[in-house]
């Protein structure tokens, strides 16, 4: 039997490594008191209204979902003002990122994204066999003028994130508008806003969609809304762009229970406000803890923070695992990314970090 090799881009691809699950650490070390601060999940879980809505629909598991996603698109329309034909639903925003690349990029094209940006941008580019143009970051932030200058004749897509994962950095509306004015009309810009709900006052992206028909705004329900296990994301764009996206979107890519949950989550504004308050308090707690330990960090507008542990991040990560704390190495020298947890979870992490680094907090 002749072996048929994979496409070159696939053959050389290193799969995305998600945060270590709690169950895996339990199996490996036999630890039961574990805090997971690795995957930027909402420490409150999801809204009780979401649980009630999903429970009421369990009898529908035997039915295929609505492939057009009417109920979720209708809620997005009510909340954000965009028509159904401007909305693309995804199995989480990762699904959408792949759809964007497959819709507009071929192996003869290039994709622009920043250093220290979400790993999936590079993965989808490589999978297609397109040229990756990774623009050096400015510190830990996107260098938007340099990214605009890096666009070539064969560039079809630009990925930018605000706030950025894994650094938590952000840019302002004026910086973004200046960037968009430099982008050729044939180049599609994806604005990945997975964490925008935590600091909504920072940036209003939606007002730019009418002005720039080559813009896609991508959002997820996995973070602030607390639906990580159900995998729901949505994209907003012009009618023309959305039409192309939905031509290659897999049928039934968002399941019925996920859509029901997403509708309930979008409606529950009180839960989102509580999540914001818990996140801001937790961020302040970690910042104060790092200051007391003499550790620097990158200011963040997300639900995680990048801290300089002044040591090998892999060794520190492994040492923290033995203390029952899961964080995330992100490929940046000396740095670990830490999700914001509850007050008790944050305290456990800070105590464990001080122990493994041999540091003593200063009053």
Question: How much of the residues is beta strand, in percent?
Answer: 5-15%
**Element order, helices and strands?**
HHEHHEHEHEHEHEEEHHHEEHEEEH
Uncertain stretches: none
Tell me, what's the shape?
Answer: globular
Average pLDDT across residues? Answer: 94
Radius of gyration, taken over Cα atoms and rounded to an integer in Å: 21 Å
Q: How many structural domains can be distinguished in the coordinates? A: 2
The tally of helices reads 13
Family: Belongs to the class-II pyridoxal-phosphate-dependent aminotransferase family. Histidinol-phosphate aminotransferase subfamily.
Pathway: Amino-acid biosynthesis; L-histidine biosynthesis; L-histidine from 5-phospho-alpha-D-ribose 1-diphosphate: step 7/9
Enzyme class: transferase
Subunit structure: Homodimer.
Question: What does this protein structure show overall?
Answer:
The structure is a single chain. By secondary structure, the chain is of the alpha/beta class. It contains 13 helices and 13 strands. The protein has helices spanning 8-11, 22-29, 48-55, 70-80, 92-104, 119-128, 144-150, 173-182, 239-248, 256-267, 269-293, 313-322, 343-357, and strands at 35-36, 87-90, 110-114, 131-135, 155-161, 188-192, 215-220, 233-236, 297-298, 304-308, 325-326, 328-329, 335-339. Strands 2-8-7-6-5-3-4 form a 7-stranded mixed beta sheet, with helices on both faces. Keywords: Amino-acid biosynthesis, Aminotransferase, Histidine biosynthesis, Pyridoxal phosphate, Transferase. It holds the Pfam family Aminotran_1_2.
């Amino acid at each position: 039997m002749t072996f048929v090799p994979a496409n070159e881009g696939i053959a050389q691809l290193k799969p995305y490594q998600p945060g270590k699950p709690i169950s895996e650490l339990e199996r490996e070390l036999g630890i039961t008191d574990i805090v997971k601060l690795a995957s930027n999940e909402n420490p409150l879980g999801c809204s009780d209204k979401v649980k009630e809505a999903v429970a009421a629909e369990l009898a529908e598991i035997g039915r295929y979902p609505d492939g057009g996603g009417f109920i979720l698109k209708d809620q997005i329309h009510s909340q954000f003002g965009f028509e159904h034909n401007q909305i693309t639903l995804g199995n989480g925003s990762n699904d959408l990122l792949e759809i964007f690349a497959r819709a507009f990029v071929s192996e003869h094209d290039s994709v622009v994204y920043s250093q220290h940006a979400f790993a999936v941008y590079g993965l989808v580019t490589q999978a297609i066999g397109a040229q990756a143009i990774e623009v050096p970051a400015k510190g830990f932030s996107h260098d938007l003028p340099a990214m605009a200058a890096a666009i070539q004749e064969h560039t079809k897509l630009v990925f930018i994130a605000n706030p950025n994962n894994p650094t938590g950095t952000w840019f302002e509306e004026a910086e973004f508008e200046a960037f968009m004015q430099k982008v050729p009309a044939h180049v599609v810009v994806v604005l990945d806003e997975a964490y925008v709900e935590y600091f909504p006052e920072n940036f209003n992206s939606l007002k730019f969609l009418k002005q720039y028909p080559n813009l896609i705004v991508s959002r997820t329900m996995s973070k602030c809304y607390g639906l990580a296990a159900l995998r729901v994301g949505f994209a907003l764009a012009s009618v023309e762009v959305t039409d192309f996206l939905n031509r290659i979107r897999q049928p039934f890519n968002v399941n019925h229970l996920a859509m029901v949950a997403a509708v309930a989550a979008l409606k529950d504004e009180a839960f989102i406000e509580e999540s914001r308050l818990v996140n801001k308090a937790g961020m302040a707690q970690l910042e104060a803890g790092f200051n007391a330990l003499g550790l620097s960090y990158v200011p963040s507008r997300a639900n995680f923070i990048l801290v300089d542990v002044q040591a090998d991040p892999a060794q520190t990560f492994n040492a923290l695992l033995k203390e029952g704390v899961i964080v995330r190495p992100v490929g940046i020298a000396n740095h670990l990314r830490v999700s914001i947890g509850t007050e008790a979870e944050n305290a456990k992490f800070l105590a464990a970090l001080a122990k493994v680094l041999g540091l003593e907090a200063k009053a």
